[in-house]
Amino acid sequence: NAGVTQTPKFQVLKTGQSMTLQCAQDMNHNSMYWYRQDPGMGLRLIYYSASEGTTDKGEVPNGYNVSRLNKREFSLRLESAAPSQTSVYFCASSALGTGSYGYTFGSGTRLTVV
Amino acid sequence: QKEVEQNSGPLSVPEGAIASLNCTYSDRGSQSFFWYRQYSGKSPELIMSIYSNGDKEDGRFTAQLNKASQYVSLLIRDSQPSDSATYLCAVGGGGNKLTFGTGTQLKVEL
B62, B67, B53: which is closest to B24 by C-alpha? Predict the structure, then answer.
């Protein structure tokens, strides 16, 4: 099993450019999440999808959009990248929407906006 | 605002010693508690989960939960250099999300 697969692993964008981060899981999990991790700030939730067909804002949603394409796939889009969005982005999935079983994380996308 | 607090460290322990990592949380309704290990440049990896008061042991790892004090800890016995990493505490409230602490950096010295 691949678990949670994120693409790309690295990306450099210019300010104002757009891009989509892709995430797919093969564990038949219901819930999927996008986090960003910055030094000293920990993991902060951007958006999540409790189940197929639903999405909700997390702690830091501004500047991002998401799409739950199907049960397996959950993408994160930056419409107009800003230097403040330089970060490491992690996708995660969970078997049940309650979070009671913890998350499985993807390997991350290291994004630099110049 | 639900908060999860951890000492950022670094916590330095000699090889073979017990490492004790601590976490406090603000939401009294929290129901699930997790410890993740994150090596530098890697993604977090779930190592322990605990749901009820008391201790839970798994190999060299013991998670301890005290809901009255809103306190979770992780003990690592016989610490090894390979245990050197950042340890993230995560707390779930029964909803759809976990709240993470900022992590404690552990260094196991030879």
Answer: B67
From A39's Cα to the closest Cα of chain B, the distance in A is 9
Q: Tell me the two tokens of residue A53.
A: 């067909």
Instruction: Report the sign of the C-alpha dihedral through residues A82, A87, A88, A90, in that order.
Output: negative
pLDDT in tens, A21-48: 999 999 999 999 999 999 888 899 999 9
How near does any CA of chain A get to the CA of B103, in Å? 7
Query: Counting Cβ atoms within 10 Å, is residue B36 exposed (0-12), middle (13-18) or buried (19+)?
Result: buried
The answer to whether A37 and A92 are in contact (CB under 8 A) is no
> Quick check: B97 and A105 CB within 8 A?
no
Is some CB atom of chain B closer than 8 A to the CB atom of A38? no
On whether any CB of chain B is under 8 Å from the CB of A95, the answer is no
Amino acid at A64: Y
Task: Dump pLDDT digits (tens) for B72-92.
Answer: 999 999 999 999 999 999 998
